[in-house]
Amino acid sequence: MAKKQQFGLSVVEVEPLHEKVYAEIVRALVSGRFEPGQKLTSRKLAQELGTSDMPVRAALMRLQAQQALRPLPNGSLEVPQITASEFAQLMDARTVVEGAATERAASIINGNNLRTIRKLSEELTSAARAGDIDRYLAANYDFKFTIYRHCGNAPLLFLIETLWMQIGPFLRRYSGSFDGALSGILEIDYHEDALEALEKGDGPKAREAIVRDISEGAAYLLKHAEFTAD
């Protein structure tokens, strides 16, 4: 027989440790904290996360199954290198799903959410002007995903995150571009246009801005970045 609750309080759900570890490694991937070709081991990640080896191993197995990490003969894992054609396909897929999520979110996002998105937009611009690639990539992730989480479609959000796990590390290649001045990225960055459209509740315009942001970024990297051979 279930024990009767004296005060009528709801049970507090505690997120399992392995889920927290998985979420932290995913965030590191999508926000470009790892670089393409970087080797990862459960031992080193566990040390940095301050946890045991087991939840890290579980997270890495999930990420390998999602093709976000590749196994190496010595048992460690590698952040995948990608070819130009793979990169182009991933970025093309991003325009489809992220454009759709943005348009859907435009009719749902309210005033409080817009204030948060506006602050993230300002942080994105500030990071670019400061030439801080780590801040820029983190702000870029936070800005876009704060929008996408309002799309009202969990499977769509899952697809977006899966694509970002594969593409996020490669976006660090922006850091060596624009003649060493990261502020040049603002010429092909349309987050302010997306914000303006969202504030007006204009879904199609917001979608157009996000698609342009992804497409022009892809075109720039395809022209200037180094890829592995096909």
Task: Tell me what you see in this structure.
The chain is built from nine helices and three strands, in the order αβααββαααααα. It has helices at residues 17-30, 42-49, 53-65, 84-106, 111-130, 133-148, 154-167, 191-199, 203-224; strands at 39-40, 70-71, 77-78. The chain has two domains: 17-78, Winged helix-like DNA-binding domain superfamily/Winged helix DNA-binding domain (Arc Repressor Mutant, subunit A); 84-224, Up-down Bundle (Four Helix Bundle (Hemerythrin (Met), subunit A)), CATH 1.20.120.530. A three-stranded antiparallel beta sheet has the order 1-3-2. Helix 1 (17-30) packs across helix 7 (154-167), helix 2 packs across helix 3 (53-65) and helix 4 runs antiparallel to helix 7 (154-167). The model has no long low-confidence stretch (mean pLDDT 89). The chain has 230 residues and is mainly alpha-helical.
